[in-house]
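Collaborator request, handled under Task 6.
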Amino acid sequence: MTSWPDFAANQPDFAHRVRRCFAIRKHATLATLRQDGSPRISGTEVDFADHGLYLGMMPGSRKAMDLRRDPRLALHCPTVDPPPDDPACWAR
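Structure tokens returned to the collaborator:
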């Protein structure tokens, strides 16, 4: 598994685009694996600090326990929000 600094050094343009995507919105979606192998989807916050990528979670949370057991994950940043002044997007 590569670290964020290694990734950013090898792919600086792509790393910049990734950081920009995660900076647009505060919350991201994290997928981890439960003990039985099924997926768990959770909300999280992402921070790029001290040359690292950090995921926000409580130490005893299910997602933290999932990641301690199996560090594989998928992370998704929001791509677009509907315009706030478009009533068609308020409730469907």
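The cover message to the collaborator said: "The two ends are 41 Å apart (CA to CA). The mean pLDDT is 88. Please let us know whether this matches your experimental observations."
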